[in-house]
Amino acid sequence: YIMKILKLGQMLGGSNSPSDTGFKNLYSLDFDGVDDILITTEDSTIMPTDNITVGCWVKPSNWAFPDNGGNYYPFGCVSSGGWAVRFRNNYNATITEFSAIIRVSDTGSGSPGYITLSTGSSLSSTLRALTGFHYVALTYDKATGRGSLSLDGVEKATANAASGADLAYHALNNRPLMFGADANTDTTGEYFFGGNIDEGSVWNKALTSAELVAVYNSGVPIDLTQNSGAYVSSSNLQGWWRMGDPDGTSSFPTISDQSSNSNDGTMTNMASGDIVTVVP
């Protein structure tokens, strides 16, 4: 009977299986919502001007989100131009809006401006009833000027700039991509997010809806360096911060970029204990 149980565990890929050597997701970062941020390297590879997808898994401390009129950014670099994803409360904290903002070189008027992608109040009751981790992603396609915001691989909001418009970043005041906040300066954040964030990633391509569904993978993260099913853009992966994997708390304070680049992130105002075993 013991042998039969062992073989069953091996077939299921259990922790005692001799073949248990594949992709594992064991850690995420726990952000306090006060001043915790992961600051990445300010580099053009993760701040492209043509096409982009940025995504991560998020588990807010409370999906209803606290405070009247609050803004909560799981990631962003939009303070002085760029892009970000955010959750926002209305001023009596009864409506939660899921939205994104993107600065582009031409919004149709011939000058730089912002396009905003928002679910408004239409998704609020669904959002506020969520639990656990969910996957959020922002895409932009230069050829069409189309931005898209998705939750768990399903498109929830869109906005359009002029066809051919570049992603724009302020020439004098670029901000690095931050997780856990929007970048206020190169070293400080604002609109802090409280909760867990895992598997942050940037591609220099607007992933298709089928690819985003594949990345969501029914709630289980995948190895983004390997094409799998409908996901065929591993070669476009420019940054991948695994938030503690593979080394756990010994990673602190550096969260290595697991793509082919070296845009490592630095845990700022955080401790090694903020690398936790809470994952999708």
Descriptors for this entry?
3 helices; eight-stranded antiparallel beta sheet; mainly beta; 280 residues; 18 strands
Summary, kept brief:
By secondary structure, the chain is mainly beta. The protein has helices at 2-11, 124-128, 209-216, and strands at residues 28-32, 37-39, 52-60, 71-76, 83-89, 96-104, 113-118, 134-141, 146-151, 154-160, 178-179, 182-183, 189-190, 194-203, 237-241, 254-255, 265-268, 275-276.
Task: Note the topology.
Layout: H1 2-11, E1 28-32, E2 37-39, E3 52-60, E4 71-76, E5 83-89, E6 96-104, E7 113-118, H2 124-128, E8 134-141, E9 146-151, E10 154-160, E11 178-179, E12 182-183, E13 189-190, E14 194-203, H3 209-216, E15 237-241, E16 254-255, E17 265-268, E18 275-276
Antiparallel strand pairs: 1-14, 1-18, 2-11, 2-17, 3-8, 3-14, 4-5, 4-11, 5-6, 6-7, 8-9, 9-10, 12-13, 14-15, 16-17
